[in-house]
Write a structure and sequence with these properties.
The protein is α+β, with helices and mostly antiparallel strands. Helix content is about 35%, strand content about 20%. It contains eleven helices and 17 strands. The strands form four sheets. The chain has a six-stranded mixed β-sheet, with helices on both faces. It has a six-stranded mixed β-sheet with strand order 9-17-16-13-10-11, sandwiched between helices.
């Protein structure tokens, strides 16, 4: 029997789940079946999906905890795996984007069965133009954004009419509870012996942090002032999807001498500034965003989490969009460099010791702390430049919605796909009463930046 225990990050994401905090993400493929001549059915999914389950072993593994060692559970093969427990379908009441986003929100609230493999697939009918959507709910402990993208690429083709090579699951291996306990004991011994080395690495990491030259461009830890984006909230979720022309963002990046990530966060800063002003809140100081930096952006892995968080200033206090772009982009580039200087191993090793405690402290402190880590959570993943296909079915949109976790329960995920930057916003209604209005502000912020950089070069 192959025994595989949760990593530290996986454990943290697993334990953070509460009745009011679902920890699954949504991966959405909007499909055009016109070339096929008929829509997809649930029977089609029931027939095709098993052909690809072997690409991601987690798709047929469940979670088992060993009594006394529940801080980090194990992944084990589900010997009773049943595809029908993971497939369903629904229909939206009308073809509007508002109805589709509302369907996403209900799926964002619907927690996965923790006794089964941590994913589910919903076929959504009734989209505009006869399109359909496949919505995969997958627990964040299973995969991060890069792993999800790699799975999408592995199960689709870049050529119309072409089908990606499948990979059926291997025969399940029986689990021996005694072996799980023995491995938990061995792993606990390794952790105990590694404590001193971890402490030394933490000291070295702190020294590297103090020596970082651009530290002034980064927010101090736990120094973000609360805004209405951080309102105490419950279990209800809201979603909004949006798309931005990637060519516009690239033009702004070239003119500003910065990265697409810097431009995206300047766009978010512009939208947040207008939203806060509309809500009657002061914009006298920057807000703070947190995003993950991938340990290996070129990795082809299809499961697991290999990111470390960094926080940046969004200069919402700056009225001039050109200066807001430059200052926000500088913070973003500095944060990525800072994270790479610190490395990733220490973060992962530390989380193996602290995952459950940190997850248990979050709901206690989330609404009580006067200062917080961040006001908004973001992600930015580079996807394919060209359209992908499922045989003769075109994937016309690829959207991701992450998790809304208090106190920063407004979460914006961006994937580049087929010439556009697809935005998925998930939040609580308390922190984001009008999500459609907010994502529309992103478009306005892009227009503002396009006007601001016209005729200017800042590099």
């Amino acid at each position: 029997m192959t025994v595989e225990r949760f990593s530290g990050q996986e454990s943290l994401l697993w334990h953070m789940e509460r009745p009011d905090t679902p920890m699954h993400t949504l991966k959405v493929a909007v499909l055009d079946t016109a070339a096929r001549g008929r829509p997809l059915t649930l029977d089609d999914l029931r027939r095709v999906v098993p052909e690809y389950l072997g690409l991601v072993p987690r798709a047929t593994q469940r979670v088992v905890s060993v009594p006394g060692f529940g801080g980090r559970p194990f992944w084990v093969d589900d010997e009773e795996f049943d595809i029908d427990c993971h497939l369903d379908e629904s229909r939206i009441p009308d073809t509007s984007r508002t109805s589709l986003d509302a369907a996403f929100a209900r799926l964002a609230e619907a927690q996965l069965d923790r006794s089964r493999p941590l994913w589910a697939m919903t076929l959504v009918h009734g989209l505009a133009g006869g399109q359909q959507a496949i919505v995969v709910r997958v627990h964040h402990a299973v995969c991060d954004g890069l792993a999800a993208l790699n799975t999408f690429l592995a199960t689709t083709s870049g050529t119309p009419g072409s089908v990606a090579h499948g990979c059926r699951r291997a025969d399940p291996i029986a689990t021996d509870p005694r072996e799980l306990r023995r491995e938990a004991l061995r792993d606990s011994g390794r952790m105990l012996r590694g404590t001193a080395a971890l402490c030394r690495e933490l000291v070295r990491s702190r020294g590297r942090a103090r020596a970082f030259e651009q530290r002034s461009a980064l927010p101090p830890r736990l120094n973000a002032a609360r805004t209405s984006f951080n309102t105490p909230s419950g279990a209800e979720r809201v979603c909004a999807s949006y798309a931005i022309d990637l060519a516009d963002l690239r033009h702004i990046a070239r003119a500003g001498g910065t990265t697409l990530n810097g431009v995206l966060h300047a766009v978010v800063a512009g939208a947040m500034r207008e939203e806060l002003l509309t809500r009657g809140e002061p914009v006298t100081a920057p807000v703070v965003a947190t995003f993950g930096v991938s340990a290996d952006p070129k990795s082809k892995r299809r499961w697991g989490n290999a990111v470390a968080a960094c926080s940046v200033y969004l200069h919402t206090q700056t009225a001039d969009p050109r200066q807001r772009l430059l200052a926000t982009a500088l913070s973003c580039s500095s944060a990525v460099e800072f994270r790479r200087r610190l490395g990733f191993d220490c973060t992962e090793r530390l989380s193996t010791y602290t995952a459950r405690a940190a997850a248990n402290l979050r709901p206690i402190l989330a609404d009580r702390m006067p200062r917080i880590v961040n006001n908004i959570t973001t992600a930015n993943v580079a996807g394919p430049d060209h359209r992908r296909w499922l045989g003769d079915v075109a994937v016309v949109e690829w959207i991701s919605f992450a998790v809304a976790i208090a106190p920063a329960d407004v979460n914006l995920t961006a994937y580049s796909y087929d010439g556009r930057l697809s935005i998925g916003l998930v939040a609580t209604p308390e922190s984001m009463p009008d999500p459609a209005r907010f994502v529309a502000r992103l478009g306005s912020a892009v227009g503002e930046l396009m006007s601001a950089v016209r005729g200017h070069t800042y590099a």
